[in-house]
Amino acid sequence: MSEHDIKKDTWIKELVTKQQRNNLVQGLDRLCEVLYQTDQSWEVKLNQCLSENQRDLLIKLLQEQEIKFDDLNSIEKALIQMKIYALNLPILTLYLAIDLPIKHLFGIANWFEFNIGERVLLDICVDELLLGGAVIYYQGVRRDFSLRSKYMYYMNQGLIDIDTLLN
User: Fold this and answer.
1) Residue 99: other Cβ atoms inside 10 A
2) Can you tell me the distance from the alpha carbon of 24 to that of 87, in angstroms, rounded to the nearest whole number?
3) Which helix (H) or strand (E) holds 136?
4) What is the DSSP letter of 101?
5) Distance CA 50, CA 42 (A)
6) What are the structural domain ranges in the chain?
7) CA 47 distance to own-chain centroid
8) CA-CA distances (angstroms) from residue 32 to 91, 118, 156?
């Protein structure tokens, strides 16, 4: 296997959440354990160790690195490289008022990658008290863009009166 920049591979674009990363790493660990066992075919091992989406990610990586499915040493190196890269992706914790579908999370992850210049994994937490918007934690910095914080700010400034809201 030649030197390869895994950051440029398309498989990484499919990894959006911290939970997806954790599930992938567990599957890769299981696959590494059975990789050299000869009692099962490569396809059986893949099906037993990885979900369909994870299999697709791995196959993309192997194809991009031009690794043949019978080259177990190169596959093992790719699995380890994939695991290390996934484990080292930065985590962005995102508190939302609602649980978003995965297609929206793809959009959010791509927005962050475009705007901060690196791929991040989203750790999504639902907090209905936010009312709307989001609270973001990234690299030790907290930014509150929630409706609740805006509401509290205006309340504290005396710009909103609770009686006005109730009537």
Assistant:
1) 11
2) 10
3) strand 134-138
4) P
5) 12
6) 6-87, 91-166
7) 22
8) 25, 28, 57
Q: Could you give the CA distance from residue 108 to residue 17 in angstroms, rounded to a whole number?
A: 11
Tokens linked to 84: 């290390």
- Provide the whole-model pTM: 0.78
Please indicate whether residue 162 or residue 42 has the higher confidence score (pLDDT). 42
Q: Which two tokens stand for residue 69?
A: 């499915």
Who's near 32: CB < 8 A, 6+ residues apart?
A: 76, 79, 80
Question: How far is Cα 64 from Cα 8, in angstroms, rounded to an integer?
Answer: 10
Separation CA 155–CA 150 (nearest Å): 9
pLDDT digits (tens, 9 = 90+) for 109-153: 999 999 988 889 999 999 988 888 889 999 999 998 887 777 777
Give the pairing of strands 91-96 and 121-126: parallel
Can you read off the two tokens belonging to residue 52? 């369909």
Instruction: Tally helices (H) and strands (E) across the chain.
Output: 7, 4
Please state the φ and ψ torsions of residue 144, each to the nearest 5 degrees: -105, 110
Cα(40)–Cα(137) distance, integer angstroms: 44
How many residues make up the chain in this entry? 167
Q: Indicate if the pLDDT at residue 167 is higher than 60.
A: no
